[in-house]
Design goal:
Blueprint (H helix, E strand, L loop, with lengths): L2 E4 L4 E5 L3 E7 L5 E8 L52 E4 L9 E9 L20 E9 L4 E10 L4 E10 L5 E13 L5 E8 L2 E9 L5 E5 L11 E5 L10 E7 L4 E7 L5 E7 L6 E3 L4 E3 L2 E7 L3 H15 L13 E3 L1 H4 L5 H13 L4 E4 L21 H4 L3 H10 L3 E6 L3 E3 L3 H5 L18 E3 L5 H16 L5 E4 L21 H19 L4 E4 L9 H4 L4 E3 L6 H11 L8 E6 L12 H8 L3 E5 L7 H16 L1 H6 L1 E4 L8 E7 L5 E8 L9 E3 L9 E4 L5 E3 H7 L1 E3 L8 E8 L2
Helix pairs in contact: 7-8, 10-11, 11-12
Length: 731
Amino acid sequence: MAIVINEKQNIFTLQTQSSTYQMEVDSKGVLLHTYYGKHVHPESLAHLIYQSDVGFSGNPPEANGDRSYSLDCLPQEIPSSGVGDYREDMVRLTHADGSTAADFRFVSYEILNHACPLPGMPAVYATKEEPGETLIVTMRETASQVMVKLIYGVFEKQNVITRSVRIENHGKTPVVLEKALSCSLDFQFGKYDMIYFAGRHAMERTMERTPVGRAKLSIGSLRGTSSHQYNPAVVLCRPETTEESGDCYGMCLVYSGNFEMSAQKDQRGQTRAVMGIHPDWFRFTLEPGDTFDTPQVILSFSPNGLSQLSHQYHDIIREHICRGKYQHTPRPVLINNWEATYFDFNKEKILHIAQQAAQLGIEMLVLDDGWFGKRDDDNSGLGDWFVNEAKMGGSLRQLGEELHQLGMKFGLWFEPEMISEDSDLYRAHPDWAIQIPGREPTRARNQLVLDMSRKEIREYLLERLTDILSHAPIDYVKWDMNRSICDIYSHSLPTERNGELYHRYVLGVYELQENLLARFPNLLLEGCSGGGGRFDAGMLYYSPQIWCSDNTDAINRLSIQYGTSFFYPISAVGAHVSAVPNHQTGRSVPFSTRGHVAMSGSFGYELDLNKVSEEEKEMVKEQVSTFKKFYGLTHEGDYYRLTCPGEEEYMAWEFVSKDRSHAMMTLVKTDGQGNSLPVHVPVRGLDDTRKYRCSYNGLVCFGDVWNNGGLTLKTIPGEYASLIVEWVEEG
């Protein structure tokens, strides 16, 4: 059993293959968090909780004068608000009388023998092989009729526990949610670092590692998306934790909107980490009978370092978040016309690129921005999703059919959530845009944002997308979103409920994508938000791959893809070979290296193949062949980070098949020095007891020799040079 209950003591123990999570109801009805860590027997660990009289930490009425009992010091599953716990809370309410206290006590529990979906939101789902189990613990707010259900999903094989919260108003008056987080973790002892992933547009998910101290360490987004600036996934780990050893805990939010994650030590040295919807600009009214569900957090623990933690997240996201035809079906190698033509294209230019691509083995052409409405730059046309047949020289059906005759699939770019003021849609429905009446709107790329919380807008977009996809042979859609949201105001919500708009917006996007995929189940949907501005587990529920970054420079991509790999499977990473000098950085990198970097993802090209040399065209053929050869490794195998950015003169990473019979390492030289020394690279993941032949030197050695000895390479000549090394099991 993954869920073990001690009914006499109200102890709830959640067991995975290598971890244990435990909580216990104390004599006052408080649900205490007793343990999360390496797998142990399901015996009470409440003896680990040390209680003492702490000055200025008050005692609730139930303590009956016991000064050692204080909510301000106890590890809790749902920290209370306004009743004596001065640390971060999870749920904050405003009651009808204006008071803001929220104090939750145990009522009951139930167990489901399957994973529990969340209404209108993505969540880790059950499969026949891993149905999961669910524990639902019901808590009651002590002075009102607000009930909270704490929902814990257990995926035993993947070493994953999920958490979310359902808040129900059983009273007769409205209650306002001021804060509704999804998860809180209390660690009574030990020092921790927080690893998070920060950045900006075109330089996303740079790994940073900071000790957790008395000053609150907080990351988040108020941009309406998970954002380029911070990713909604963090690691808490011991200071000594490395890739291969040490305790580490992951927290990954399955959500694509505003979020916050914070960690802080309290006065007793305990660490509390919380995650969920950002409480700023959030205010959600629950009428009598209403229910609110928070997004899901995926928790995972590894006692063996960061690599194992990443493998657990890669597996759960690949197998229980990503869905549809292309969950495991090989993705087509594509070419996108954006960096080849930008807005300056016509049918002849597109077909010219496609003809050359087809000859080189590329399988799909994606037509990017500029095919619709009045759209010759980024200042107009968004919202007018009608084909500009004058510019295209015909219909999309004609173009798609000609591409299919070349043996290529056809992909198309959309930006459904946006609207240009210079558009027929805006002139007809200016109130559909998010903007504050009487204020000049804040613009980005001269575009505004559609209010996706409104049903009529979602219906319009679904009708337009359906019409286009139904009348042309389109196999793939790139769904972009190219600005942050501000000027928050909805013309359809009561003014006092505008604090609901950010969350309702995200729910609207999810609904539209779900309905689109229901109509076109074979569609390959790729997410995008100026590249990696919405690269999160919520989006991966709908789009099994996301354009990793608008930055296609191969050397910059090393650190971007490195940071991405901590939580997200490589199959989710959209990565392309682009032209040089690179359009973002001006750097020139060898064609072979650009290919090697892009192969660590869902592979494609972002250039005009008619402008590359004959030698490079032959390299395209070779790269496509190599990508397909290693597809099972890169998209289904285990990924190992062998180096950290900036620590060596090179970056290296490795893929190992699940059956340990095959491995592939990629190395890219990032710096060069005179009188260079040999390069020594670690090797990971081979079976110690089996023999493998190395393609670099032809040697056959046991796996433990490779795993512990590594591989020494001669000096690698050439600026930004790269190579691939392969290990294949012998005998």
